[in-house]
Every structure is written in structure tokens, then in C-alpha cells.
Amino acid sequence: MLTIHADSRGRALAVEGARIAEAGPLEVLVAAFPRARVRQWPGILTPGLVNPYGTELLEGAYHPDPREADALGTEPLTGAALTALATAQSLDDARRGASARRGVQRMLAHGTVAVACADGELGSRPVRDAVRRSGLTIVNRRGHPGGTPALDLYAAGTPVEFAPPIRRDSPAHFAVFDVRDEAELAERGAGTCVATVIEGRLLYRRR
After folding, report:
1. Beta bridge partners of 139
2. 164 Cβ partners below 8 Å, 6+ apart?
3. Of 32, 1, 191, which is closest to residue 12 (Cα–Cα)?
4. Is there a contact between 170 and 162 (Cβ–Cβ < 8 Å)?
5. Count of beta carbons in the 10 Å neighbourhood of residue 43
6. Which residues of the chain have pLDDT under 50?
7. pLDDT of residue 196
């Protein structure tokens, strides 16, 4: 089914399968595709974000299960905290894979559609499998991007990178942020994400 995604500014995308069938004003697309389902989103529709810290946030971090929040908190554990956890508990492949799946979901909740990794790959098989099954694209990263690894790229201290521009016949990779414009997005951050779409699939929707 063809679906039209529209934001509060009247900008819209007609999505068919994994690709963009057309982009333009909402009224134009509704006229062109009168049988399409229309999803009206609050905020602005943009290309999704590319998180440059795939290696650090998915292989070099542990994302606690909500049931572990009392003991471990809710933020990713890295550095000394991760070493201490690995010393105290067994971080086997099953736990690393589960951590990566939670990490991926948290990235999707921040509008991420791709992750950059050293040499364009993840070394850990359970982490690699979790990312591939999620639909996130893995792109090559040369060197360290600098800044501080973060799920919200506006808090990382480096320039924010978006996926390629959305246009007709491009892959349907985009995000929607509940802000008025790009300036407010930069001010409030990627935690304002309300929806993330990869290859036409709605993989995250804020409840």
C-alpha cells in the first residue's frame, strides 16, 4: 500500500515499498495518489540521522535492560563502568546481542537510520547480527569522529550528519521530529523524534 507521510509544515513523502514514489506539498501528493493512506505527523520530516559512533555505542557499551535499571541505571555503560560489569557478570554473546538490540532501538528513537563503524563493519557477531536485522545501514568510518559518543547527536559536540536528501526514487529513510523547524531541532535535540522510517518500514513510533 502506498502511504503519504506529512509533517506540520505541509511537506510530504509518498512511500511505496522501500522507496520514495514522490516528494512535495501534501495537497499535491493527495491529488496525485487519492487512494493512498495518509499519516499526519507533528513537527518536521527530515532525512534520518547518521550516528558516527556505531562501534562505541553498540560494541563498546552495554545498554541495560529496563529490569536492570535499579542496579545499572538506564544510560549506556562504557569505559570503567563496562569493565566493572564484565568483571562482575558474564557478558556472553546472548547478553551482548540483547544489549545491541536495545541500543539499536534507542538509536531509532533518536531518528537514526544509519551507523558509521570503523572499517565499515562491526567485529562482534551478535552485535553485527542485531544491527543487520534492525534495518539500520552500516557505513564506513575513517578515524574517530571526535566529540562524545551519544545517542542524541546534538549532544555529541560534533557536526550532525543526515542521510542523503529525500527525493523521488530514493530509499525511504527518514525521521520526524516534534519541533517547529531545524533551529529548534538543534536546540532541543534528537530526543524529540516521534517516528523513524527505514526502507519504508515504520521502525519507531513514539507512544
Report:
1. 116
2. 47, 170
3. 32
4. no
5. 21
6. none
7. 98
Task: Look at the chain and count its residues.
Answer: 207
pTM: 0.93
Q: Could you tell me the CA-to-CA distances from 49 to 9, 71, 156, 189 in Å, in that order?
A: 20, 31, 13, 12
pLDDT at 181: 97
CA distance 176 to 9: 12
For residue 71 the three cell numbers come to 542496579
As a whole number of angstroms, the distance between CA 191 and CA 137 comes to: 20
Question: What pLDDT score was predicted for residue 121?
Answer: 84
pLDDT at position 149 is 93
